[in-house]
Design a protein that fits this description.
The chain is 77% helix and 1% strand. The protein is an all-alpha fold and 632 residues long. Among the domains are: 107 residues, Actin-binding Protein, T-fimbrin, domain 1 (Orthogonal Bundle); 59 residues, no CATH class; 85 residues; 57 residues. Strands 1-2 form a two-stranded antiparallel ribbon. Strand 1 and strand 2 form a beta hairpin. The chain is flat, with a radius of gyration of 57 Å. The two termini are 64 Å apart.
Length: 632
């Protein structure tokens, strides 16, 4: 233990603890607290960052600090019992165990070779290889590649110049837009023919995908920034935004027509603008769409404005009048369309009701037809039977004779068939019974096998659980072995091990000597007892022989019996004394073991700490009373 204490003291000095004592026995609670705190700061500084360097003077603070340290050590994997009193009133054996455990948790020292940290170099190599694996492949002619220097002016990527690519859409747009699916199937060119050159296919597709992604990203950003706070769902928000965009487009188109005087060029520009928008929305095939109605509206405005351009004032008045007329016309059209829609919806509802009525009538008629068909089939069967009976009534006696002969023939046939059936039935029944017995035996065997299989499964589960526990224990021990410090002084440990082996050999020699002595003593005791018993029997026989002739021999027999009785009592007392001595030795060893645990537990110190706690409690009670009086 002195060598273990020496290793612990060397470790504590390396950790920066100022130790004046030469053994752990002289450590007090203050020194134990400082040493354990030094260990924990090296192992995990974050857990003890709030603890002070010395034990607090307040008793409650001391208990809290020692409890926190004890919990940290337990969480680190310390298996023995540990509480705050083991640190406030330290015991040599417990403190030695704690120091040895914390020494095993200390991190490894960095091994330097040639001024280069091997671990850091390995980490850098791993990071470089991971970066090379995760890096995306870049062509050699790409200007962003740093692998091959050179002139990359001939490696420009071109996209299609004939407009954006048209890729068929899917989902709701195919159902909403009539004829769009037919257009995609019959008229839309393949993707490879929409570009001017074959080399432009990939860049054009990249640009198309990037534009879709950018548009979706913009929509998501706008919804996150503005749409979520509007209180609407995404569909309603898109519809409201679409209405706002359309209204702004109407205003801009109308303003451009007014500013340009409704010229033909402006009209053509507006038409092309509306065509582009229609293509973007996928509604270019819709002849009566919203943009076509807007175009007709702008054409009317331009015609009216061409006729009314005389002066600036008159132009503004005619524009205002045409706008009012346009609103009135639009309102009347909307009302008329709404009335038509209402009429059509009413007619659809009436048609639906009539159709449901017709369906119910049709189902009812089908059920009636089925019942009538069943009745008809039953009547047809009855008719056939009655027809046959009526045909037999013409020649009743002849028919009766024929029926009698048929009955006799059928009865004879039945008897023959029954006899033949008995011949066939007996082997079948015997075979059936044998098979049934065999099946019962197989069922019993299968049942026993199933029971055995269940037992084997239970045993397998138990073995699997044991194997898993052993694997977990092995993994835990392997992790502990990996975490254990490998840079400790091997010479000290080897010297300790050799000395321990020498001590064990010496103890073994001493134990062998003691065992040999006990064997020799046992042999001597056995020989002495045998000689004593023999001499006792011999003396007893001699005395009995002499007692017949001599009176003194009778007195000798009585005294010999008394001596024998006392000798037996003396043997019992000696055996009890030996048992008592053995019990005393065991109790002394237990007392020594307990005293080793409690030798440092100073009763005077515990009493003093108790008095300090009581005084602190009294002061706290006084403070509480004063605060309550002040509040009242």
């Amino acid at each position: 233990m002195d060598e273990a204490d020496g290793i612990i003291l060397i470790t504590l000095k390396d950790l920066g603890c100022e130790i004046e004592n030469e053994t752990i026995k002289d450590f007090d609670s203050e020194m134990v607290y400082k040493c354990i705190l030094a260990y924990l700061r090296v192992i995990n500084e974050q857990k003890v960052i709030n603890l002070t360097n010395t034990l607090p003077k307040n008793m409650s603070a001391r208990v809290n600090a020692c409890s926190l340290i004890a919990n940290i050590i337990k969480d680190s994997g310390f298996r023995s019992e540990l509480s705050y009193h083991n640190l406030l009133y330290p015991n040599v054996n417990d403190i030695r165990k704690i120091f040895i455990f914390l020494g095993q948790l200390l991190p490894k020292k960095e091994v330097e070779s040639g001024g280069v940290n091997i671990q850091k170099l390995e980490d850098q190599i791993c990071q470089y290889l991971q970066g090379c694996v995760k890096e995306s492949w870049i062509p050699y002619f790409c200007p962003f590649s740093k692998r091959i220097p050179g002139n990359y002016s001939t490696a420009t990527l071109f996209t299609t110049t004939g407009g954006n690519l048209r890729i068929p859409s899917r989902g709701r747009q195919l159902k909403v837009t009539p004829g769009l699916e037919q257009y995609y199937n019959n008229y839309l060119e393949p993707l490879t023919l929409q570009t001017n050159r074959f080399e432009d296919i990939a860049p054009s597709v990249f640009e198309y995908n990037l534009s879709i992604y950018a548009e979706a990203q913009e929509r998501d950003n706008e919804w996150n920034n503005k749409g979520a706070s509007s209180g609407m769902n995404p569909i309603d928000y898109r519809k409201s935004k679409q209405k706002q965009v359309l209204s702004k487009m109407n205003d801009s188109i109308r303003q451009s027509i007014i500013d340009g005087g409704g010229s033909i060029n402006n009209q053509i520009g507006a038409d092309s603008f509306l065509d582009v928008i229609g293509e973007f929305r996928g509604n270019s095939l819709d002849v009566g769409g919203q943009f076509n109605r807007k175009k007709a509206f702008t054409n009317e405005l331009s015609n009216n404005n061409n006729d009314g351009i005389l002066s600036t004032g008159t132009k503004v008045e005619t524009e205002i009048e045409t706008e009012e007329q346009r609103q009135l016309k639009r309102q009347t059209e909307i009302d008329a369309l709404q009335s038509q829609i209402d009429e059509i919806s009413d007619s659809i509802q009436t048609y639906n009701k009539e159709m449901m009525d017709f369906l119910s009538l049709m189902r009812q008629s089908e059920s009636e037809n089925l019942e009538q068909d069943q009745q008809r089939e039953g009547l047809e069967k009855q008719y056939k039977i009655k027809k046959k009976t009526f045909s037999l009534l013409d020649d009743a006696e002849g028919n009766m004779k024929e029926l009698q002969s048929l009955c006799n023939q059928t009865s004879s046939n039945l008897l023959e068939m029954s006899s033949e059936w008995e011949k066939v039935r007996k082997p079948i029944i015997e075979k059936y019974r044998s098979l049934k017995d065999k099946q019962n035996n197989q069922a019993d065997e299968t049942k026993s096998k199933l029971d055995r299989i269940k037992e084997m499964r239970v045993l397998i589960k138990k073995l699997v659980s044991e194997v898993q526990q052993k694997d977990e224990q092995f993994q835990q021990l392997q992790d502990q072995y990996k975490q254990a410090p490998k840079d400790s002084n091997r010479s000290q440990y080897t010297r300790r091990i050799l000395e321990t082996v020498k001590n064990i050999k010496k103890q073994k020699v001493d134990i062998d000597k003691v065992l040999l002595d006990t064997k020799n003593l046992q042999k001597e005791i056995n020989t002495i007892t045998d000689t004593a018993v023999r001499t006792f029997e011999l003396v007893k026989d001699l005395l009995y022989n002499d007692a017949k002739k001599d009176q003194t021999a009778k007195q000798a027999i009585k005294s010999f019996a008394i001596i024998d009785d006392k000798f037996q009592k003396l043997l019992e007392i000696i055996n009890e004394t030996g048992n008592f001595q053995n019990n005393i030795l065991t109790l002394n060893s237990k007392i020594e073991h307990v005293s080793q645990k409690t030798n440092t537990l100073n009763s005077d110190r515990v009493v003093q700490d108790l008095k300090n706690i009581k005084s602190e409690n009294q002061s706290l009670i006084k403070q509480i009373k004063t605060l309550m009086e002040v509040q009242n």
